[in-house]
């Protein structure tokens, strides 16, 4: 049972990367903004977090730096699309390309750097339980934070007035504006929070999940996180479950290789991306289902004078 416990533990860790980014993108999209720049934000945050971890030896500061880098890029994106009215899709793609190039340039000197010994975490009493201990209770605190964030976000969206306002902005910004709601400020705040969570995900990759810096190390996880929001029909609990599903698919390749399964490594590597394509195709085949669950004003610009 030990290999299965290790697979579950690895799945939770891999899923956490996707969960933070996808929850951040979910907040954006609930406010009506599509940000295709998740990959770039995560890459810049990854090098920012790794550099701070190398220089200070503090993982906490590294996570703060990663979240700050993600929020800073998201702020630039927000100014462009919310106040200057640029196309959300084109601006997001530009942000992703910028993040990939900037992180590669900034990370040149850190390619050979190594972090110190990584701390080990466990929940006293529970970590020693057979099977469930190593599977569930020896995780990094951010793994549990992702679960808590999912619960908190679900409550926020469906049980709080602020969450109702956020969803109203994503459904009908014109009606929200007519009621005196500051639509653009709320959208900008949502973009900042979403960018910070994408940044936290990027820092988690380079400081905990890997931990090292390699150019392009996010390897498409930002795009998978973007697809997860559609797969989850913009609901936090489904985002978390989907993140663990894709995390499990990612880790399955290593489990199969460790078990001696004779499958080409290239095929195993492409499994997460193949799963993403299959899920999107299946979801897209039911356009009515997507339309009913999708925020009505997703991707549509808003200006008070319109």
TrEMBL record:
Localization, UniProt: Cell membrane
**Major place of localization?**
membrane
Q: Which InterPro entries match?
A: ABC_transp_permease (IPR001851)
Query: Mind listing the UniProt keywords for this protein, alphabetically?
Result: Cell membrane, Membrane, Transmembrane, Transmembrane helix
- Entry superkingdom: Bacteria
Gene Ontology cellular component annotations, sorted alphabetically: plasma membrane
| Membrane topology reported for the UniProt record | Multi-pass membrane protein
Membrane-spanning segments: 31-53, 60-83, 89-108, 142-158, 188-207, 213-232, 239-259, 271-290
A Pfam match is BPD_transp_2
What GO terms are given for molecular function? transmembrane transporter activity
Q: Which CDD domains match?
A: TM_PBP1_transp_TpRbsC_like
Stated name of the protein: ABC transporter permease
